Amino acid sequence: MTEDKFDDDAASRLGAGARTSALDRGRRSTAPGAHSADDAAANPSVRVDLPPAPVHEMPDDEVAVAIDDIAVNPGSLVGGGSSTTSVEVITPALAGAGYRGGSRREPSPYSALLASDASKTRRERVSTDTGSHVAIVDVPGDPALPAEVPETADSLTADRLIDLNRTTRPAPQGGFNRLVYEASLHLVNLGDSPKVQAYKAMSQRIQRRFEGGARFVPVLTRKGGVGKTTITALLGMALADARDDRIIAIDANPDRGTLAERVDRQTRETVRDVVAKASSIGGYTDFSRFVSRDETRLDILASDTDPTLSEAFDDNDYNVVAGLAARYYSIVLTDCGTGIVHSVMRATLQRADSVVIVSGGSVDEARLASETLTWLEANGYGELVRNAVVAINLATQGTHLVKVDEIEAHFQSRVREIVRIPYDPQLAAGSVVNWHELRPVTQHAARELAALVVEGMPAEREH
């Protein structure tokens, strides 16, 4: 009996101990990272290998509105605790509208960077979508977002809208490019050659418009026989050939001028007849009866061939003729005589907008031309001297023996421009000058002289 009781007590204690051990094992198994080999055997796991999930591309409409990055103001980070961080996102729109959030914050350097990035992105989008003709301005209420300014009708220019191609480009003028254009049945258009482009550019210089009445240009020098009359005719022809308005050259030489002999004379009327019949001239048709016109449309008013009558032509007579010419012509050239102290010279210089001084290629001719400039400066015409153009006529005798470069260097220190007029057989003949029969180099020099004279005259002035 006693032995049986002992066995029962031992079994009871053994069962309690087993339960305690099982409980301990359960507690240990619930601890993180505590797994025994028995537990692994008691709880077997199954591993299943699955194929990788397919990756679908995002549709284009979602890509267009996707937000990859969000600008966060570092100054807006609020520390809430050891395990939580609060991030407050301030968009540019809210920042520009005066948003203050939960508390007042000082502006950070990142704010300026954020505004510049937003402005840059906006400009790039506008430039990409609509081109470079959209004006961008800063809106006072929203500096980060620029606005578009509507274009005016003046912005729709031909250069902007017309696509120049072989069908819209003008046909080339002359030379090899014109030959290619015609041979290809107008399919190949190379445009104008550089030579033609230079010719057109000079024509534009000569064709400069004026406002406020006629412009007067006297051609003068102290010495006769240097080609003053020839230079006057060349200048007038170059102007008339390139311009659409009227050009006239008046022979005011009191010593029997020969300007009218440079063209096919169509009338025997002279400046004296204009003065005598001035009251009957009521328009250009009446005035045109007194002039001769050449192939370039240059009108020339001759002087009297009688030396006695020529001497009687004074400053009052010139003012009558010049006043009538100013009504019907845009540019009035005056071929002055060799006597610079003559009364006509005073009236001529008072109306002058620019002057052309003619010099020959010899030593004495160059010296006398320089003395003409000195006389003008001494008599109150210094501004005309500084704006003058000197034409060096290389057709005079002795030119080949003289250093023309030195003559030109001398005049460069005194006047605005210098032009060399080369020798031309037609000019040397001293007779009628046919513009289209002149050598190309002579025409070019005359056109250069015309362009320089036009550029020296005021574009606008009061009547």
From TrEMBL:
One of its GO terms (molecular function) is ATP hydrolysis activity. Keywords: Cell projection, Cilium, Flagellum. Coiled coil: none annotated. Signal peptide: none annotated. Pfam families: CbiA (PF01656). Residues 31-45 have a biased composition (Low complexity). Residues 1-54 are annotated as: Disordered. Residues 221-362 form the CobQ/CobB/MinD/ParA nucleotide binding domain. One of its GO terms (cellular component) is cytoplasmic side of plasma membrane. One of its GO terms (biological process) is negative regulation of cell division. This is MinD-like ATPase involved in chromosome partitioning or flagellar assembly. The lineage of its organism: Bacteria, Bacillati, Actinomycetota, Actinomycetes, Micrococcales.
